[in-house]
Amino acid sequence: MLEAAATSLASIIVLGIGFSVAAYSYQKFYKYFVLQKIANAFEPGDPVLVLAAIGKNLALTSTAAATHWVERPEQAAVDAIVAGEEVGHYHLFIGEKGTGKSSMLLEAMRKIDGDGVAMLEAHSDLEIFRIRLGKALDYEFHEDYMGSYFSERGPRDTTALLDIERALNKLEKVALQRRRRVGKPLVVIINQMHLIRDDEDGKDLIELLQQRAEQWAAANLVTMVFNSDEYWIYERLKQLSTRMEVLTIVDLPKAQATAALNNYRLRYFNEQLDPGTVERVYDLVGGRLNFLNRVAKSQDMLKTCNEIIEVEKTWFLNQCWILGKDMDDDVMDQQKWATAAVVLATALVDKEAEMERTYDPELGHVLPSFALHKAQEIMTRSDFVRQLDRLNLFSITSSAQVRASSVPMHLAFQEIVAEPGFRRHLQDTIDRIAAIESLGRTRELVAKDLVFGGKYKIRKAAATAQDGARFDVTLKEGEGWSANNASSASVNHD
């Protein structure tokens, strides 16, 4: 019995030690493998670059000539940020849609073949954002533990925010290793930040990302780059920012815009444009890169320019046209918003008459603008202008200036304001809104005796020391009067 017991005990000890060593080795290997996968995600070559190259028919190599590219003044600064040479800060790129923010980032990544850079697109759903972050970092969010041997805890045991926090913890460890080996920080680019919802979950996500960006910028571990089309992201980040740098991307100046148009036209049609045509195109669409690219691809460029202006005008009218003096009171809330937008557009058009210049021979278009607080005063509301920015009707710059979202949109404003009877129609709408609001604040008292044809005879009675002045009211019956609706009163007047 003692021999059997000793043999069993020895077997149990050997099995326990074997399983413990195996489990410990597995967990160590697993954690090493996870970090190694994340480190590989920052090696040269990036799927984002491959997709961009396929979509635009471009060369993948970093040494290929960038004949497709129009060099912006900000490109050198973007190259330094993406290459990890600019340290100690995290960055917010802000500007209107189509100005070339994402293209500059992709071009900077192409020059270094994506070495040390990861890029992902934001999304309004936190679950999708979590998946995209995991794809960019090559991290699957699984977490094994020794309590269940060779078992993996799935990512659905927690929330999306906690998963994102775990992924950033792993990224920090990889960044520390790379910092010791290379001496440069990693770069993480989050594109389309404005797609995150402006609600509690969205605020929590932005706060989480900004806290990490602040910490990593101070330690020179990771440089975070946020890219947004909308002003509210800047407002949200500014509240807690100490190391944030803002880079505003605007339309190209005239000289560079005309050079871009010639470059695009030469690439697509191998055609050299005459200066007069280039001037007319710029006058209609300005220096917005996506407009210039679209125009350069068309056979009739001037027709395409007019179509762009018409599309912008239609978009504005569909979103916020005013209904005039005959509008129904059920659309009151929408018409308040629409009227505020039209009033602001009219004020921008009217301001041109007060400006010293609206066109510079070198810079090109100088669009009229108002300070954000002044625009809110003109609209008489402070909560509408940011929603108009989200719809790309107006633009709020990083210096808090409100103007039309583009040159074609401002030309659309001019056409709308110049229509016959527009200002009378706008005033009728404002008056109708005021009348509906007045009715909403009015309470009507109806005397049924008078409705049924009766009359009141009011007589001043003798005053008493106790009651003061008194009035007696007597009803004179009329047609339709009955005892059921009779009334009488005695009124005291102090």
TrEMBL record:
The Orc1-like AAA ATPase domain, residue ranges: 77-222
Upper classification of the organism: Eukaryota, Fungi, Dikarya, Ascomycota, Pezizomycotina
Highest taxon in the source lineage: Eukaryota
Protein name: Orc1-like AAA ATPase domain-containing protein
Span of domain AAA protein C-terminal winged helix: 318-437
Pfam families per UniProt: AAA_16, WHD_AAA_fung
InterPro entries: AAA_16 (IPR041664), HTH_AAA (IPR056808), P-loop_NTPase (IPR027417)
